[in-house]
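Deviation from plan, reported transparently: manganese (II) ion complex.
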Amino acid sequence: MNKHVEVWVNETAKLTKPDRIVYIDGSDAEKERLTKEALATKEITELDQKRYPDCYYHRTAINDVARVEHLTFICTMNKQDAGPTNNWMSPPDAYAKLSAIFDGSMKGRTMYVIPYLMGPANSAFSKVGVELTDSIYVVLNMRIMTRMGKIALDVLGDSAAFVKGLHSKADLNEDRRFICHFPEDNTIWSVGSGYGGNVLLGKKCFSLRIASFLGRNEGWMAEHMLILGLKDKKTGEKQYIAAAFPSACGKTNLAMLVPPAALADRYEVTTVGDDIAWMRIDDNGQLRAINPEYGFFGVAPGTNSKSNPNAVKTIKKETIFTNVVHTADNGVWWEGSDDAAPANGTDWKGNPWTPASKEKGANPNSRFTALAKNCPCIDPDWESPKGVPISAIIFGGRRAKTAPLVYESFNWQHGVFVGATMASETTAAAAGQVGVMRNDPMAMKPFCGYNVNDYFAHWLAMGKKMKNPPKIFNVNWFRQDENGAFMWPGYGENLRVLAWIAARTAGKATASETAIGNLPDASAIDTTGLSIPADMVKKLLSIDKSVWETEIASIRKFFGEIDDGRLPKELKDELEKLAARIQKI
Ligand code: OXD
Ligand code: MN
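Because the crystal trials were delayed, the predicted structure below was used instead.
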């Protein structure tokens, strides 16, 4: 064992007082042993192995089903370094407060030591983390979501350069639940939760919050983005696109998109990642990206053969299902699944459930944890140590009225403004009210590990270092008509928008300059085989002056709220330029 890890493990054990310490090696034999143990303690249930090979079922505590943003803290010595969008505690206060909760929290339990690697082996992008946890469910999930065990220790060698993550379920009491990040110490302390987004520390905590901080200091970017490959089979040209959407807005679906039948001969989409992108500029000035994860932690409800046929195939084996319905015939079900609702089952709260029940059977944020390599459309280069070259970046959110189906920013700086001013309706991925509009810059509001204004400055600086910065687009799949009905069919049909983006990026499509950016003419969106009213695409691409005036006022308010003196002048300039252009409509 690496001696730095060992010293820290021993120190931590003095605080948390586990009965046993188990070092995780990532082997198959170990997986078998841990699975048996978790089955014996009923932390997981084995599903019908004929229909669901190597699949298991788990329920979290009822009060513990989503990320808890109000209990998530960035703990920097200087409060302003955490910035206006993060909760802050001073590191001494946070360590003291959480130490009291961690004290003895693992008594009677095992502490697992999980070394893990984010990113492929042999890649300059990759980083090592070690998570200490008293949850066997965490170990089994980390095995899917990261490259876990020996592989990580081999990369680490004698080095002390690893992210220290400490997790204890403690008593799962919300009053003693905290997710604290200490970017200046490369440390994460998470206590009182068993929900994935709070406890699989390689994911949001490390790969976004800590990594965004490391990226700023080291000159790279950690983003809440899917990465997909789009191949035009006619020309043989392939592009990689990274796209940021807030949580539970369809990143997994877009990453695994199946082209509509009418365009299937022409286009192919492959998946590099569905949630997180680490991006660096290579020696030629090209932005390249890796997916640091090894699996998908996807939202189950609504996942079916129409919304995401590739996900349906991915989760057929070696998958952990959390907080969905456990059916009487030992399978799983959720609202919006392919299967008819089971006559009988157990809901996510552990209560008997039938289709006549008033409440939903699956929690709206119920999840599957599945291996990326089981995805039928996984990209051949998804583990390339060099990453894939990114030619376009997409921002998007749920907007009922404002944003058109797609537009292109004028240049990198304007694109950063477009990302910085993203807003979207909240979803069930985080605790709190659903459907409330909030600003979510670059979909990183819950995940930026430092001052968001410095983050914007970092984006601007990165653009200057690239030879041909990716073109930046905005999309909105969620525009509604006067009656509140969605105007765009979404899902696989989104390929039609991706195709325009790729053509535009390749310099093969025209666009009209408008007040908000470059828009395609309605005829430039290929609607072959799509039954949609003739003027719908035109409507989807329309810009309403009064709606945008309201938008500008809300951006002004947002900038006013976050500007602590560090909001880059370039973004304020972009706002004034946008306001002037809108006025002229
Ligand atoms: C996720 C999230 O789980 O964004 O990916 O909440
Ligand atoms: Mn996410």
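Residues 224, 247, 275 surround manganese (II) ion (ligand 2) (CB under 6 Å). We consider this an acceptable substitute for the interim report.
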